[in-house]
Amino acid sequence: MTGTLPGQSLSGPLVEIRKLSHSFGGHKALNEVSLTVEPGSYTVLLGPSGSGKTTLLSIIGGFVHPNEGSVFIRGNDFTRAPPARRPTATVFQDYALFPHLTVGNNVGFGLRMRGVPRAARASKVRDALAMVGLADAIHKRPHQLSGGQRQRVALARALVVEPAVLLLDEPLGALDLKLRRQMQDELKALQKRVGTAFIHVTHDQEEAMALADHCVVMSDGRIEDQGPAERVYSRPASRFSATFMGESTLISGKILDLGMDEIRVDTQVGPLSLAGAGEPGFDVSLAIRPEHITLVPESGSVSLGEAVVTDVVFQGSFKRVLAVSTRDPDVTFIAKLRSSYGVAIGDKVELYATPADMVLLSR
Fold it and tell me: Does the pTM of the predicted model rise above 0.85?
């Protein structure tokens, strides 16, 4: 099987979303969203409930027609086309398998609707089930399978029709934590093997980071941030992205003055100098990821002041520590410290971070 279909362009974006807007009653679910998806990419739409991610996926799949904007796939306008006319397939959270059909007939259903002859259909079904490790389950019924196996059947059914784009609507949401992590690995490996572009909706930040080579963070019907997952995490583009794509300590401040290669910011925990651009007097925020806050000064680090520890949670290889600044009680530091640190609730500690690890954000 291959993700490249006859006539599929090998250059330019595979999916192009142009200024999509859509409302349900008085609620604006999408507000002028534009997005491109490259061939062979694994794109994850990440955001809380109500952010617009599922609506965007539904519009790409043809289940919802937008009030405004366009959907192009392989250079063709599919904005008003029904799902069956699109080069897409969808995997739903509840799998949507037919309980009265065998696994093989479930997987072959889409091929049957397309008029694929029985012999060719049977061969494709066997190949698809082998690809997801379920060749021996072809004659079973869905109720005889585990949750993870049913998920694999749904994937095989979607991939057997060789879509240009596979759409996944929170496909791992019904699985337990261990199985969800196992399926994350399998999904990523499967996507690399078949070469089809995947667009995957989730509200789970860890899932997004495990899967995405293109992460799209959404909030209130808009795209807040997008790019490689590592960049979105390490250098978030907005306050929302900094706090939703993982945790961050946010410190408010005002730009005091500019140097040759850095700016000086008057913050809630004192003046700090770091690389960045801006105008004196502008309000800004500094975002610091938990793993970049330490109890011990390191090369190039600066003091963030004293703080009182309010919570310590053991999480295996590290302790998640919350500590309130003694200078400004509105600032709560979030730190991931080595498990060997003997820190306890009520301790007064001095915290440090390196300016290069601080992200300057406009407020």
Answer: yes
